[in-house]
Amino acid sequence: MNRAATMMNAHETDILHDRRIALGVTGGIAAFKVAGLVTALRKRGAQVRVIMTEAATWFVTPTSFATLSGNEVGLEMFGGTLRDELQHVHMQDFAEVLLIAPATADIIGKIAHGLADDLLSTTVMALTCPVVLAPAMNVHMWQNPIVQRNVAMLRELGYGFVMPEAGRLASGAEGEGRLAGTDFLLAAVERALQGALPRYDLQGKTIVVSAGPTREPLDPVRFVSNRSTGRMGYALAAEAERRGAEVILISGPTELPAPPGVDVRPVTTNAEMKQAVLAAMPNASAFVSAAAPADYRPAQVHDRKIKKGEKLVLDLEQTDDILLAVGEQARPSVLVGFAAETGDAVAQARPKLARKNLDVLVVNDVAEAGSGFGVDTNRVTILRRDGSESALPLMSKHAVAAAILDEIAPLIS
Question: What local confidence, expressed as pLDDT, does residue 343 receive?
Fold first, then answer.
């Protein structure tokens, strides 16, 4: 199969390929960030239709969203450019999920109390598909008891929420209220298409995640390593933190920024990673081993640079199996491993589940388009201790992270 055909097959297995996404945009300063989400959805083959409130048009023009989505933007209930006086009803025939981002205090309050006085709020009342809200507002507005009551009410009714991030806000204040990043919004859409909404179920738990490669030195300037970028592990750490966990991320060398709110402990070699992981285990509720530590290291480390032209025979020795050591020496209540294979990945990986005393093993074929190192997506199969398995479609690594945490959260004691 040629490269073009491989890429086409990967695209068609993407959970977003040809899926129908409705996007509501309300009047907040964060509205401009949603343009990137539309682009990301379209890039992965989704159909997107945007509904804007009147206030939203003060921050982003309808023309921008029409251009990015390839569809006219819904603005008015009656007499609008779409000439469809029942567009709020007809959206039910289109949308498989509705994401409202940013979701202001106004739209949250309207939905919570069943008010329908504009196109977006009326559309919400008419839809039966999953609805996910991504709040963004000033920290004091977000902390207002009325807003929090409305959020709690909607969550009880089955609405999903991508909670806001903490940081510097447009007003200059510091605190919660920033719109969640595009990766989290994209993952929320993907998970809603699978019938799962964003959760907050890890509060009070400590999750240890390992990520990235290790580097085993040969001389002062050279090392043995692999192609891991750490993206999957970082996505897991960020998702666990958003779900309320205390997260320790043991990270090999990467170029990724530290996830907000996560305790990142950098390491370089396999031995350093093993030491850091074991040191973090006493308080851990779960260990998710998403790192790709080197399986081999040079048997001899030269204390000076090996000059070009010198005869070199590279003698390698095996490194310690970190996940096996955790299972034998310091096992938390839940132990999760990853297996990056090529060929018949599941068959090759399955023996590791029992051999390493795992609760869950996440398997992917790194030779498959969109599923290997250095990409933002992954397609995995989840193997369980009881012998059952679930094959997930191609999704963003943040959505895969959410699916894995959905899997293990009920197992954590």
Answer: 82
CA distances for 10 relative to 3, 116, 282, 368, 370, angstroms: 11, 41, 41, 8, 6
Return the structure tokens found at 39: 């682009």
- Secondary structure of residue 92 in the 3-state scheme: helix
* First vs last C-alpha separation in the chain: 47
Catalytic (active site) residue 226: yes
Residues 71, 226, 283, 364: which is the catalytic one?
226
- Indicate the pTM of the whole model: 0.86
> What mean pLDDT is predicted for residues 107-135?
95
Q: What length does the chain have?
A: 413
The answer on pLDDT for 5 being more than 60 is no
φ/ψ of residue 164, rounded to 5? -70, 160
Q: Where are the beta strands (DSSP E) in 189-256?
A: 206-211, 216-217, 223-224, 246-251
DSSP state of 28: S
- Predicted pLDDT at 308: 86
User: Can you give the pLDDT at residue 176?
Assistant: 86
Q: Which residue has the tokens 């205090």?
A: 105
Question: Contact, 225 vs 265, CB < 8 A?
Answer: no
- 64: CB partners within 8 A, 6+ apart: 35
Alpha helix (H) ranges present in 204-250?
231-242
CA–CA gap between residue 73 and residue 40 (Å, rounded):
18
d(CA 152, CA 173): 25
- Band of residue 79 on the pLDDT scale cut at 50, 70, 90: low
